Amino acid sequence: MTTQTAHDIDSVDLAEFRSTVRAFANAEIQPGAAARDESKEFPAQLVKRLGQQDLMGISVPEEFGGLGLSTRTQLVAIEEVARTDAALASIYTAHYLGLEPILVGGSEEQKHRWLPQLASGELLAGFALTEPDAGSDIASMRTVARREDDGWHLSGSKTYISNAKEADLVVLFAKTDPSAGFRGITAFVVPKGTPGISYSEPQDKMGIRSAPTYTVYLDDVVLPLDSVIGTEGRGGNIALTALNRARIDVAAMANGIALRAWELGREYATERKQFGTPIFDFQAIQLLLGGCDAQLVASRVTADWAADVKDDGQDIRRAASISKYVATEACFSIVDQTVQIHGGAGFMRESEIERLYRDCRILRIFEGTSQIQLLTIAGNAPSPRSTDF
User: Fold this and answer.
1) How many other C-beta atoms are found inside a 10 Å radius of the C-beta of residue 280?
2) Residue 385 domain-assigned?
3) Which of these is catalytic: 80, 100, 352, 367?
4) Domain hosting residue 312, numbered range
5) Taking the CA atoms of the chain, what radius of gyration do you get in angstroms?
6) How many domains does the chain divide into?
7) Which stretches of the chain score pLDDT less than 70?
């Protein structure tokens, strides 16, 4: 077990940083991952430990209480957490998604009020956008907010919301002008314990089972007038900006799962013998492992490129979608091929690769499906005469 935290590393040496986070993850996260998957228990203590390791606000600017490090550094941390427990990584990336709207759209007062506690891990964040009839089409949301003398009154529901019940604050989106479609959406900060909010039981999911999601019910929830993030009617833009930035984090989560799958495939191929020799010696297995290696390297390079685009302040829509699409599709392929290497053993519930197979499937759906990513990529492609390719 390491006692060194991320903040103890003076220079941004990613190899050293990865070693520090991996030692922590191997010692504290990986041992109970299978049991948490079985029990579906929210890992509250591990979420707290992420904060104690200075990992909850890696790329948040120092003026708002974060470490002020690069997005590449953040991706390393996410990847290493996902390598040991995809469910905890889902909670972790949902936290970053929840703080993004405040970071990119909040007032200076809101940033100084909320971000230091989020970056330290004192507070956990959530992000509530999806509704039963509004997934990729956020303009069709039905949750409404009306302004009255005593504040904003919100009514409606959200579904598939990660961290919803456990989060200390949730950034929630509602229509303040139902007739304006996308331009009628506004973002709000909703602190934990706000009256009028109730939750379904944790939803029973195929994978990432200890990262609970809920349907959230809003029954005339009253928020202070200063709960609006940014300005009224700008919530749709804030949501999409936050999602674009968060898609790079999901790419890192996918790469972490894929890395663990590749490790398991090599280990099993070395240990498993058929016809008197390890199956690693068979060309068919080497072809599978070689393909996994190539896909993983390409995915990680693509995620790093997208991270640099973000940190350079450029338009990240295309890069973020490319990184998420490449990484999540590659992750599913790598895990699937690793199950193939395991044969029947990989189909058994007690095998780690079986859990990874269930965990990775959601990655091609949340934060925008693979098909939405392709539409975004096509819609933001450079001109054929551009030198940006």
Assistant:
1) 18
2) no
3) 367
4) 237-379
5) 21
6) 3
7) 1-12, 386, 388-389
